[in-house]
Design goal:
mainly alpha, Four Helix Bundle (Hemerythrin (Met), subunit A), 6 helices, about 70% helix, about 0% strand, elongated
Length: about 230
């Protein structure tokens, strides 16, 4: 898997994701009213129905993930209000979410990294959608970095919740619980934005720039893929 040091300050207009979430030189935004990452300047749009089945499958998995995130966020809110008072219900909801992370999100990310991202990286470079530094970073590097950060935050959140449930000291338990809740909130926000970027920027780019043969080979390889 490719891993590069990403300089987020390089050439902010050099790839579509950076153009998507940052101020473009041709537009003027107030510092108090920056462009919303979920309401960006218009880019090429491709409807779901026009997507290749490979991309549709990824998007369907995103929809399932967003539903789990909604449920997890609801659990976080309950814990923030009631603490661990409903221990059995809360523990079950947390366990269900982290099992989904391990069994579903992990596999989803691996499929993207192994089969989709290498082709996208090649096509971004061919199209000039990259930085101009010594290492040609592009949208793929940002997405891979997101994958790493998400798993790290998920691990911290899982550990903190487990620790909070075992600490006998009330004040220490509240401190650890607050850390777990903040990490959980950050994880939800980060993953929602990551999914939005893939669905609205990266997958349309893939649909417009990858060939039918490349999608067919990708589909065949993914059918045989096992994460274990």
């Amino acid at each position: 898997m490719r891993r590069k040091n990403i300089n987020m300050n390089k050439d902010k207009n050099s790839d579509p994701i950076k153009r998507f979430v940052e101020k473009e030189s041709s537009e003027e935004y107030s510092p108090m009213e920056p462009p919303d990452a979920f309401s960006p300047p218009a880019l090429d749009e491709v409807e779901y129905e026009q997507m290749n089945s490979v991309l549709k499958n990824f998007m369907d998995e995103h929809k399932a993930c967003l539903k789990k995130l909604d449920m997890f966020e609801e659990t976080l809110n309950k814990i923030r209000i009631n603490g661990f008072s409903a221990q059995k219900e809360v523990s079950g909801a947390l366990s269900e979410f982290f099992q989904f992370v391990d069994n579903n999100i992990r596999t989803h990310n691996l499929k993207e990294e192994k089969f989709l991202f290498p082709l996208l990286n090649q096509r971004y470079i061919e199209k000039g959608e990259h930085s101009t530094g010594p290492e040609k970073t592009n949208a793929v590097d940002m997405l891979e970095d997101d994958h790493i950060k998400f798993i790290q935050i998920a691990a911290i959140t899982f550990t903190m919740f487990g620790l909070a449930g075992r600490l006998p000291d009330q004040s220490s338990r509240l401190v650890i619980l607050d850390i777990a809740l903040e990490q959980g909130k950050q994880m939800v926000e980060m993953l929602r934005l990551h999914i939005f970027r893939e669905d609205k920027i990266v997958f349309p780019f893939a649909q417009l720039n990858l060939t039918n043969n490349e999608f067919a080979e990708m589909s065949s390889n993914m059918d045989r893929f096992s994460p274990h």
